[in-house]
Amino acid sequence: MIQCLPALLVRENLQRVITYAQKDEDEFVRRVVENKMALQRTAQEKAKRKPEKHERQFSELDAIIQRL
Which whole-number Å values give the CA distances from 28 to 11, 18, 25, 60, 63, in the listed order? Predict the structure, then answer.
């Protein structure tokens, strides 16, 4: 019985989401799109910081090499 608990919880949660989506489809779609856009913004910000981080690391390595 305990092994079935996770599957039961997932099924109940999925049923709640389906019911919500059916009752207020416009709001559901709006929230899905809003969440997707937030994830994309986060990914873009992370991708932007990555080259900056690498540039800083190269500068630090250059400084170390200059001291040698």
Answer: 19, 10, 5, 48, 53
**C-alpha dihedral (27, 28, 31, 32), degrees to nearest 10:** -150
Mean pLDDT per block of 10 residues along the chain (68 residues) reads 79 95 96 96 87 85 87
Contact 28, 21 (CB under 8 A): yes
Contacts of residues 16-23 at CB distance under 8 Å and 24 or more positions apart, as own/partner, are: none
List, as one string, the DSSP characters of 7-68: HHHHHHHHHHHHHHHHH-HHHHHHHHHHHHHHHHHHHHHHHHHHHHHHHHHHHHHHHHHHH-
